[in-house]
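Dear U.,

For the methods section draft, I wanted the exact inputs and outputs in one place so we can describe them consistently. I've listed the two proteins in the order they'll appear in the manuscript figures. Please don't edit the C-alpha cell lines directly; just add comments below if something needs changing.

First protein:
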Amino acid sequence: MAAGIVNIRRDVEDKFYRYRMPLLTTKIEGKGNGIKTVLPNMTDVARALSRPPTFPTKFFGCELGAQTTFDEKNERYIVNGAHDANRLRELLDVFIDKFVLCKSCKNPETELVIIKQGRTEDIIRDCKACGERTGVDMRHKLTTFILKNPPVKIKKGKNRTGAGDAAAGIGGGSPDNGDEEIDDGAESDDMLTRKIKAEAKELNTDTALAKEDWSADTSADAVKERMKALEGAMNNARLNGDDEGSDDEVNSPYAVLGQWVAENRDPDDPKSFSIAIFKKAEELGIEKKHKSVLVLTQALFTLEIVDEVPKYQALFAKMITSEKHQKAMLGGIERLVGMTYPDLLASVPKILMALYQADVLEEEVIVNWGTHVSKKYTDKETSKMVRKASEPFLKWLAEADDEDSE
C-alpha cells in the first residue's frame, strides 16, 4: 500500500482491502490563545468516507471540547487548539465506527438517512452492501449538527451521500458486481493530458516489449528446470471457474496470497518466483480464480510495471483463461494506478501496450473496458481517471485496425 493511504477499517490489515482513504494529516498554526490545528486533507478523507468534511471535523470538536471552523469554498477545516495527529486519527476511527460502518456487516458502503417520526428525528445508516438499516447513537452531540446540516443526496441515482458528486472518493467501490456505464465527456487536467500524449508518442509495434522473448533460455540448466516445472504445473491445471467469497474478507485466501507475494518477492529470479506463486495459489485452492489475477496484479507489479510485465508473462498467460480473468487484471491495474501508484497514471498507455503485446489482454476486452466506466474495482472517479489516461492507447488500437482494413 502506498504511503499515505490506509484502510478505512484500520483494524483490517489486508493490503488488498477495497475500502481505503488518505491518512489524515494535521498542521499546527498560530500561537498562544490563537493556536489551531488545520486539517489539510480533510476533504479527501471525507470523500473516501462519503461524508461531508464538516461531519468528522465537527466530531473532533465534540470529542475534544473545542471549537471548529469550516471554509468549504477553500476546503479549509480547523479545530481550535493544538492536537496530536495520532489522537485525531484515533478519533476518526471512532467517527467511522459510529457514523460510517454498517453495524451489521461493518462495511463502509453506507449513506446517512434522516427519518422523521412525529416530532422526533432519527439518523440511520443505510447499508448498500447487506441492505441493513442500523441507527446511530442519537445521544452524541454530532447528531444535532447532522440534523441541522443533513447530508446532500447524490443525484443521478448514485448510492452515496456527502458533499456533492465528490463523495465517491478513494477506494469506495460498490459491493455489487455489475458494471455501470457513465456518459461523461469531461476533459482531464491539461497538464495530465499533455503528459499522457507525450507517453503515447512512444507507442509503436516495434517497441522492445514486442521483441522480448519470455521463454528464451539463458542456457543455465537451473533455469531450464524451473521453466519446465512451471509449464508442467500450469498445464496440468484447469484454470477456469467462478470465484467464491470476497477479496475484501479479512484473512481470505486472496489476502493470504497477496501478503505472501509481497513478503517473498524475488525480483532477481522472476521465473522461479512464478513457479512458487502458482504453487502457493494451488495450496490455497484459488489457482483457477479470476480474483487471484486481481490480487497478483496488485501484489506483483510496482512502479516498474512496464519492465515487469514480460518477466511474469508466462504466469499470467496461463492463469488468464477467460474474459472474466482479463477484466480482473484490468481491475487490478485500476487499483494499482488509481490508488497505490498515482504517478503511473501517465504511463497507462505503455502498461496496456505491454500487456497487449504479451498476449495477456485481448483488444476487444481492452476497448470495452476503456469505454465503460465501472465502480466494480474502484470508485467511479478513479475508474474514469484511469480510463481517460488510456485514451492514447485506445486511439492507437483504432488506427491500427483502420490501417489493417485499408
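Second protein (the one for the lower panel):
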Amino acid sequence: MELRTQVKAESPRTLEQPGKMYVKGKYLFVNEIKKGIHIIDNGNPANPKFVTFINIPGNGDIAVRDNVLYADSFSDLVSIDITDPAAPKEVGRVKNVFKTGLFDGGGWSLNESVGSITDQNVEWVTETVTVNCEDNVPPMTWWGGIWMLADRVSFNSSSSASPQSSGGTSGQAGSMARFALDRNFLYAVSQSDLHLFKIDKPAQPADFATVNLGWGIETIFPYDNKLFIGSSTGMFIYDNTNPAEPKQLSNFQHGRACDPVVVHENIAYVTLRTGTACGGGQNQLDLVDVSNPAAPQLIKSYQMESPHGLSIDFPTLFLCEGEHGLKVFDVTDKFSVDRNQLAHFKDMHAYDVISLGKTLMLIGEDGFYQYDSSNPKDLKMLSKIPVGKAI
C-alpha cells in the first residue's frame, strides 16, 4: 500500500504541531503529530540542531533501543535503523497490529484525507463515542475496523523521564508515553490493549502477545519491575518480573479524568484534569502509596489548575499546567506539597516535561524549551525551538 512506502528520511523541517518527545544520548526525537519524527542533535543544549526528519504517516509515539527507533504508523509498528541519524532507514514492520482502538496519540483531520494501513476492504460508518483522554479529542469515526479521529486533536498531553530496564541501551520517554521498553520487550498500549513485541532481534520486532485492559487506556510508565498504566478511570499496576507475562496486581480507581502517572520509590504521582473528552470535574495532583502494589492507597490530593504531564527528580516535582505554565514543588513532605511550591513559571505553554538531572526539557504548543534546572526555583533558559522557525 502507498502509505507503507512513505517511511523515509527527508530534509529537516520546522516544528508545526509537536507532540511527544524522547531523549537518547545526545539526540532528541520529537514527534510531529501524525507526520513523523524530527531528529535533533542536542549535544549542546544551548544550540540544538535539526539533523533530519523521518516521514512516518500516522505517527504518534517513539521509543529507541540502541540504534533502532520504534514508531507507530497508523495500524503498523515500524523499526528504523538510526545508526546514521542523518540517514535513517526502515528495517522492519509489524503490519495491522493496532487494530482495535485509537493508538497514535495524534489525530486525523476532516480537512485532510483520512487513512489507515490495513489489508482489509473498508466502508465508512459514522458513530460518536467517548475516546482517548490523553488529548483533548473530538468525536471519532469507525473506519475499516479502526477508530479514527474526526477532527484535529488539540495539543494536550505530557511527559516525564521514565526509568528504563536492562536489555540494551534505551532512552527516556515521559508520563504520556504509550511505548515502553523493558529487557527484550517493547510494550505499547492502545485504547484497550497492552501489546507485547519481542525485540531480541531489535531490527525485526515480533508481535508476541496482547493483554486486554478494558477501555480508555492512555499511558504506560515502567518502574522497578512494574508497569504503571494510566487510564481514564484509574491506574493499573502490573507485576513485570517476567517481562513476557505481565500480571495485574491492582487497579487504583478515581473519577473520570485524564491520568498520566510517574513513580518514585513507594509513591505514584498522578495528575487528573478536566476540559477533555475524559469528562469529570477533577483538576488535581494525587499522591498514591504503592508500597503494597496489590493495594495502593491515596495519600493526599492537591488541587491544580489544569495539570498535564509531570516529571519527578526527587525531591523536585515538575508539573505542567498547560496554558498556566509550569509549577515546581518540593515533595519531601508528602502531606504538604501545596505549601512547598518552589516556583511557578507562567510565560510558557507546558505540555510535556522531562527532567534530566540539571537539564529540563519542556514542550508546548509554541515550541520546545530547554532549561538549566540546577536551581529549580530559578530555571535558566538554555534554548528554544519555536514552532514555525527553523534552527
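Candidate sentences for the figure legend, describing the second protein: Residues 2-106+129-385 form a domain with the Methylamine Dehydrogenase; Chain H fold (CATH 2.130.10.10). DSSP finds no helices and 32 strands in the chain.

Thanks,
Y.
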